[in-house]
Write a structure and sequence with these properties.
The longest helix is centred in the N-terminal third of the chain and has 23 residues, at 19-41. The chain has one domain (9-235): Vaccinia Virus protein VP39 (Rossmann fold, 3-Layer(aba) Sandwich). It has helices at residues 19-41, 58-66, 69-74, 119-132, 151-162, 170-179, 198-209; strands at 47-52, 75-80, 92-93, 105-111, 133-144, 213-217, 229-235. It is of the alpha/beta class and 238 residues long.
């Protein structure tokens, strides 16, 4: 059997060859930066931002590039990712949770990560938030929506461009796209989104923190059924 064709992460997201998929991911990316920038504008003094599961660091790199000189002085950028090496500069790489002081993070971003975490890793993530995010700090989580009409063109384009057939049966694919029925969860959590239900992450966040503001992208007025990503904002400890 031939090994699965390896596709670079950014080619599947921000640099996707399909303009529709690229638009969706870049809208999500831009909205994440707008959320962080808006939060920073209301928070005077020194601020510390950590991107949990930062990948190669593109979000942190772009955020730093768009900051003013004054903001670069007062905002510390950190990134943690055990699976990808840093490619971009302008942030501090965090190798372990022990490097982050207790209650020292003002903004924690977790972008397109929770869908890849198993139960133990999810528990570790929530523990990190409770321990490291300052009281009143912001947690921003984005995850894919793997149901609704947008799922069909998303999977078709991925198969066409990357020559990789979906790991979801046509029966499950159409049921997820048309009726919102979630197929069985994949065993390859790091390499596949199959069976991921964004609502489970939303409910877990509510259980842990009690307050979750939910939004959708790229067309927020269409609700989850007409979108490809969910945004969730949490005020930690408030």
């Amino acid at each position: 059997m031939k090994p699965a064709r390896r596709i670079e992460y950014e080619q599947q997201t921000l640099d996707h060859p399909n303009p529709i998929a690229r638009f969706a991911h870049r809208t999500r990316f831009a909205r994440s930066m707008e959320t962080v920038a808006g939060w920073l504008a209301t928070r005077p003094g020194q601020q510390r931002l950590l991107d949990y599961g930062c990948g190669q660091g593109r979000f942190l790199h772009e955020l730093n590039r768009r900051m003013s000189e004054a903001e670069r002085v007062r905002v510390s950028l950190m990134g943690y990712d055990p699976y990808m090496a840093a490619k971009y500069p302008a942030y501090r790489v965090v190798a372990s949770a022990a490097e982050v002081p207790f209650s020292s993070v003002d903004i924690l971003t977790c972008l397109e990560v929770c869908e890849h975490l198993d139960e133990k890793e999810t528990y570790t993530f929530f523990g990190f938030v409770h321990e490291k995010v300052a009281n009143g700090g912001l947690l921003l989580v984005t995850v894919p929506i793997m149901m609704g009409p947008a799922l069909l063109p998303k999977e078709f384009v991925r198969a066409l461009l990357f020559r990789r057939w979906p790991d979801t049966s046509l029966w499950h694919l159409f049921n997820a796209a048309l009726f919102g029925f979630v197929p069985p969860r994949t065993t390859d959590l790091k390499g596949s989104h199959r069976g991921y239900d964004w609502r489970i992450t939303r409910d877990r966040l509510r259980d842990e923190f009690g307050n979750v503001e939910v939004d959708f992208s790229p067309f927020r007025w269409l609700g989850w059924y007409g979108n490809s990503q969910a945004f969730m904002k949490v005020r930690v400890g408030k």
